[in-house]
């Protein structure tokens, strides 16, 4: 009996040591992964400089082009989900967008314009679209509209001190302090308490864990502008997307019309005979595909944004409705109908 107990005790000790070693290994692996993710942005900066090299390598052969143009979006999406899960801000996506825009314009001026197929008016239109995109992006970056903390605290403190306005002799109730009126509106509306910022936030406002603040009518945090999209910059964000998509489509049509004049712009992306006969045309064709992939992704984002506006719902409200199983998917799952705000015209159909 003593031997059996001793053997059982030894087996338990071995299992305990094995579990401790396994936990230590997993904790070491997670800490190493966290350390890599903390410093990944520094190592990803040379990827911006490698972008022209990768596009030039992809222009050498169509098989290389398929491989690189398939791998690049996958790597970008992997890095997006890695940073999004850690809720940390990064300049990589904004830098990648601006660098890609500048490099595509550089190739357009140096490779396409000298061919003589693009006129001065077309070059001016493409240049104006690019400059307008950058200007709108700068305007969007000015701020999403954070909830002002002192104003909200003052409004709520006014309501807690007195429930009726203190009107002096000869004064009317319309001369009540602005803070008191705002506080009454706060109590009547669907204001909510933010435990992180420790403030009362107005209806449809939300806390962004990436930016670390509450945003009025928060839609989502966009990594491509490294900022939130809220009440103050939602309109300029949509204008930036629209101008970029139109400018990009116009530039792609000019490039494909120059290197493949026998085909239309849509069919030239899939069938352009002789495009790999010269390295210059192959590079322009590869960059057209790269621009088409980016434009397609942003066109999808723009479409979802327009549908959300039509249904009077924000991206944050749609995610919360799906999480609580209160929303309904409409239009093949492109938009979530929360049923909370009924002023949109599409919900009547």
Roughly what is the average pLDDT, rounded to an integer?
78
Strand content: 5-15%
Physical arrangement of strands within the biggest beta sheet: 1-2
State the end-to-end CA separation. 80 Å
Which residue ranges are poorly predicted, with pLDDT under 50 across at least 5 consecutive positions?
A: 18-40, 154-180, 344-349
Separate helix tally: 11
Total E-strand runs: 8
Radius of gyration: 28 Å
Output the helix-strand order: HHHHHHHEEEEEEHHHHEE
Instruction: Provide the structure class.
Output: mainly alpha
Which of globular, elongated, flat, extended, rod-shaped describes the shape? elongated
Can you tag this structure with a few keywords?
349 residues, 11 helices, two-stranded antiparallel sheet, single chain, mainly alpha, PFA4/ZDH16/20/ERF2-like, membrane, transmembrane, 8 strands, Palmitoyltrfase_DHHC
Q: Any overview of this molecule?
A:
The protein is mainly alpha-helical and 349 residues long. The chain is 62% helix and 7% strand. It contains 11 helices and 8 strands. The chain has helices at residues 2-38, 40-58, 62-86, 92-112, 120-140, 149-161, 178-188, 234-259, 265-268, 279-310, 315-323; strands spanning 192-194, 199-201, 206-208, 213-215, 220-222, 227-229, 328-330, 335-337. The strands form 4 sheets. Strands 1-2 form a two-stranded antiparallel sheet. A two-stranded antiparallel ribbon has the order 3-4. Strands 5-6 form a two-stranded antiparallel ribbon. Strand 5 (220-222) and strand 6 form a beta hairpin. It is elongated and about 65 Å long.
